[in-house]
Amino acid sequence: RRPSAFIPLGEILQEGAESSRRQLLIEAFVSAGRVDNITMVMGLHPQYLSSFWKTQYLLLHMDGPLPYHKRHYIAIMAAARHQCSYLVGLHMGEFLQVGGNPAWLQGLHCAPPKLRNLNEINKLLAHRPWLITKEHIEALLKTGENSWSLAELVQALVLLTHYHSLASFVFGCGINPEEEQDGGHGCHPPSPHSDSSPASDDSSGGKDAMQEVEVLMERLKLLQESQLEEEGVTQEEMATRFELEKAESLLVAPSDMADHSPQSNLLCFVEDPEFGYKDFTRRGEQAPPTFRAQ
């Protein structure tokens, strides 16, 4: 199985790849004993991979206030929030390798209360970060048996945001599971083709996906044309119309979408699974102020 459902294998495994990329992949193999599909795909941009890999290695393997097994468990919590089973499976294996308690992998309810207390801020960071207040931080730092130190909490929050972002990369690049990952329980992005076989140009799933994109682009074209014809229609109103059209097209899911529902091994790490993104800039609604950081 190729590393990405979207990128041709020949493009990833080019002969005579630049020396910097080859050296990075060799270092990854020597360090971890394997080269995962994220590294293979990100290796198309060696400088970015180098920065990413060093950062992630620091977070997971270097000195820090959190024990190694708790770092991997926090990664599992973050990835499960975005239903990214590729990362959940990857870090379940890493969690066990560094001596984590297998019982914790039965679900969040089996983890220590201190880790369970991260659930609320994990949920908000993943879907509506603008709702986080100083009270959320204070609640975790308050004195008590299950309190966090400031250093521990900083590392935990960086891990959460790192893996929320990495889940987007996994879905956006169509990262396939490694063959040893539980028979293919890797990332299941909302894609109409089956994970049981590689996506190909002549597969019915691939055709369905292309048709959906074509329909969406046609609707966008019509909206742009109507924008030229209608006077007094603002850019913001046209953007709202396009979002409504896009939402409608996404609601018409292929018949085999049920195959990609989150597995139980994801939901057991998620509390309040219905909580998700909600636009906070809708007109006519009381909304929290937008936090802008340029």
UniProtKB/TrEMBL annotation:
One of its GO terms (biological process) is positive regulation of macroautophagy. It catalyses: a hydroperoxide + L-cysteinyl-[protein] = S-hydroxy-L-cysteinyl-[protein] + an alcohol. Pfam families: PA26 (PF04636). Residues 193-203 have a biased composition (Low complexity). Residues 180-208 are annotated as: Disordered. It comes from the Eukaryota. GO terms for molecular function: L-leucine binding; oxidoreductase activity, acting on peroxide as acceptor. Keywords: Cytoplasm, Oxidoreductase. It is found in: Cytoplasm. GO terms for cellular component: cytoplasm; nucleus. Belongs to the sestrin family. This is SESN2 protein. It comes from Jacana jacana.
